[in-house]
Design a protein that fits this description.
The protein has about 250 residues and is of the alpha+beta class. About 30% of the residues lie in helices and about 30% in strands. It has seven helices and twelve strands. Helix 1 runs antiparallel to helix 2. The longest helix is centred in the middle third of the chain and has 23 residues. The mean pLDDT is about 90.
Length: about 250
């Protein structure tokens, strides 16, 4: 993997890297935050170009971190944690709107999860993704809010056309634009791997490649392998966070 990336994590448990790829600026952002009895993880991909997208993505992950650091307590149940996720998304949306002065001038995707006690509580808007990989196979993933996802679901295009469609980067929902937040609860077993990624990864690597590279020995090695493979075929920013249940 070439230089220029930002990385952090907890060795053996979770690791994240954000790389600008072939672009001058990195409009992605990510979060790896151990918090009480769990981990708060996120990936954001800014929209609006250059400083606008960069600011929106940074605002999203900073707001998410702030909301949880101020409000999370270990005795909170799943429903309460989901409410915190939705509160963070709503707050980030308002802050991005305030900074941009007009709806749609800048925005960001945001996929996030709070992992604890063998469960991943996930929230998503936009086309960044979360995957759950078990025994080398993807068994769950979030749904994209994108033009091509809509076309695929209506049968207008097939799976083989998605990665080369001219509108594959156009999102239909995003913070700062028109947010719609999907939530998921995934049960995690020992050895399961959770992947969060911006479209610089999954728009260019197919599921089979992602599955194969997830068999690396540690979250750090897995992230490095995924980023390295993506950089062979994309000029886009690439951000990946990998968590392994132990």
């Amino acid at each position: 993997m070439s230089g220029g990336g930002i990385s952090c994590g907890v060795e053996g448990r979770v690791w994240g890297i954000s790389h600008p790829g072939g672009r001058e600026k990195n409009e992605d952002a990510f979060l790896v935050l151990p918090l009480g009895d769990g981990y708060l993880l996120a990936v954001a991909d800014g929209l609006g170009g250059h400083s606008a997208g960069e600011l929106a993505a940074r605002t999203a992950v900073e707001t998410l971190s702030e909301v949880f650091e101020e409000n999370y307590r270990q005795e909170l149940g799943e429903t309460d944690v989901e409410r915190l996720l939705l509160m963070a998304y709503e707050t980030a949306h308002r802050r991005i709107l305030d900074a941009s002065k007009a709806p749609g001038r800048m925005g960001t995707t945001l996929v996030s999860t709070f992992v604890r006690n063998g469960k991943a509580l996930i929230a998503n808007t936009g086309d960044s993704r979360a995957y759950l990989v078990r025994d080398g196979k993807i068994i769950a993933r979030t749904r994209d809010h994108s033009v091509v996802q809509g076309l695929l679901e209506r049968g207008v295009i097939g799976e083989e056309e998605v990665k080369r469609h001219p509108m594959r980067h156009v999102v239909t929902k995003a913070l700062g634009v028109d947010p719609e937040v999907d939530t998921y609860v995934w049960e995690m077993r020992t050895g399961d791997v959770l992947i969060l990624s911006s479209d610089g990864l999954h728009d260019y690597l197919d599921d089979g490649t992602i599955e194969k590279l997830t068999l690396e020995s540690s979250p750090k090695a897995t992230v490095e392998a995924l980023i390295g493979e993506a950089l062979k075929v994309t000029e886009d920013n690439v951000t990946v966070v990998v968590f392994r249940e132990v």
